[in-house]
Write a structure and sequence with these properties.
The protein is an alpha+beta fold and about 270 residues long. It has two domains: about 210 residues, BirA Bifunctional Protein, domain 2; about 40 residues, Roll (SH3 type barrels), CATH 2.30.30. It is built from five helices and twelve strands. It has a seven-stranded mixed β-sheet with strand order 1-2-3-7-6-5-4, sandwiched between helices. Helix 3 packs across helix 4 and helix 3 crosses helix 5. The N and C termini lie far apart (about 40 Å).
């Protein structure tokens, strides 16, 4: 990984895509073992500031939750975005915050996307919600990076999904009535600027996001974690990112678990 960066494989000239210094930079690679690992290497060498990112055309060792292999064919978005370790990103609310920022940005671009707590994005349609993106947060030392994979043109089939997945997958390009699908590089650049601009301008309302962008809010759901299962009405999220369920008349909170619509198979 270090050698390929030293040889300038990030772009044709070995330089990042660099808009004016005051806005985020994007390092681009044709391929990488892992976007996340590349981002941490760049950060450790002082080359990745907060809100800078890495994007690669494909990954050979991409990973999702619990280090599951992330299928990475060319044509999708594979990126790693460095986040500030301050404000909402300093604690357990970091995952839903970046999830809401990304969902809101995709909605602004014309795709009807919601956050499935805690870190999946789904595309809504008449056929029901379908997973279209995943987010993985990793912190090493004082560096926080969000690994982001978005199914732009390709989606894994059922055999490639983990056992017990709550939803099937789809791709943005497969959605009905969405905007024309851009190149992965174009989409990521638009998303970075939308996210950065919204955060810097303070256009972020955690409560309003929940009303507009939280999947299954107000519905009966099941939460599974470490062999335990609880059923309740999804009320929303706590300020620390915990999920709030109304169970037997009481509002209770959980920070971990996998969420399913009540009555769905898993």
């Amino acid at each position: 990984m270090q050698e390929s960066i030293g040889q300038g494989s990030l772009t044709e000239k070995g330089e990042p895509v660099t808009p004016p210094w005051s806005i985020p930079r994007i390092w681009r690679l044709e391929e990488a073992g892992s976007c996340l690992d590349t981002a941490f290497w760049l950060a450790s060498h002082g080359l990745l500031r907060q809100w800078d990112s890495v994007q690669t055309g494909s990954q050979s060792c991409g990973r999702g939750q619990l280090r599951r292999h992330w299928h990475s064919p060319r044509g999708n978005v594979y990126a790693a975005l460095r986040l500030p370790l301050s404000g909402p990103f300093a604690g357990t609310a970091a995952a839903p915050w970046i999830g809401f920022l990304l969902a809101d940005a995709l909605c602004e671009l014309g795709w009807p996307v919601l956050l499935k707590w805690p870190n999946d994005l789904v595309l809504t349609s008449t056929a029901g919600p379908r997973k279209v993106a995943g987010i993985l947060l990793e912190e090493r030392g004082k560096t926080l990076v969000a690994g982001i994979g978005i199914n732009l043109y390709h989606a894994p089939d059922a055999s490639q999904m983990r056992e017990g997945a709550a939803l099937p997958a789809t791709a943005l390009a497969a959605g009905q009535g969405g905007p024309p699908s851009p190149l992965p590089e174009e989409l990521w650049q638009m998303l970075v600027m939308q996210i950065f601009s919204a955060y810097k301008k303070g256009c972020c309302d955690f409560g309003q996001w929940q009303e507009r962008l939280l999947l299954w809010r107000g519905c009966q759901v099941r939460l599974k974690d470490a062999g335990h299962e609880v059923c309740g009405r999804l009320e929303g999220l706590a300020p620390d990112g915990a999920i709030r369920l109304r169970v037997d008349g009481l509002c209770r909170e959980w920070l971990n678990g996998s969420l399913y619509l009540s009555g769905s198979l898993s």
